[in-house]
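anyone seen this seq b4? input:
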Amino acid sequence: MRAAIFATALLVGLSACGGDADTGETETTQYSARSYMQAINDVARMDDRQYDEARQPGELLAFAQIDKGEVVGDYIMGGGYMTRLLAMAVGADGKVYAFQPEEFIAFRPEYADEQDAAVAPYSDDNGNPVRVFPLRGPITDPGWPEPLDTIITVMNLHDLYISQMPEGTADAAIQMLYDSLKPGGTLVVVDHLAAEDGGAEAADELHRMDAQLALDALTAVGFELEAESDLYSRPDDPRTANVFDDSIRGNTDQFAWRLRKPE
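predicted toks r here
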């Protein structure tokens, strides 16, 4: 299934992450990793840089096609790696809504502190958010205050399927993501890849996402798969170990999709 998706989206996906060979106004030249160097070199990201070699932030932002002035949601922001990247990528006229689910904070209170720390560098002298706005709420209801141009969720889609979440969480959250975007808006999903036919059990036991399960759920609400990138493809990963296992942690095979809500 993954090979079939990749074949249909190869040209678009790789051009978004490619170099600058073309001189015309193409997706390659408009969205290149080097275009996001200001975001990558942001002083607030000093601690994040140790992860950049593996996470390839410029290439991911290019694949996501983040533009200045966009309104972007970081869905399940975790420690804030993506939040900090997006803060500079959207520019002074853009906004980032950094959402931390209440369920995550209840499980690990440090997530609240990490959210506060991620937002602080982009606040005014009185501590009021200026460019990055923190949101907390149920995982199915972030409370985005306005329609979004882009939503990014990195290594968290599988969490919608774990047994700790109430039945129906995944369907409700995915419908919410679709409804929260402007017509023509995009959803960018990166997640640990499960073995074929891993199902929801792979999410619950290994923290991996069954690609077919994800694709079926996303397209069922109306999303159209626009591109897939092999940015995080690691074929040596057997996809059978928990992503937190020392043997594979930080080196999992991952899929990266850009999906679009039709106009």
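Residues 2-16 form the longest helix (15 residues). The CA atoms of residues 145 and 226 lie 26 Å apart. kinda curious what u guys think
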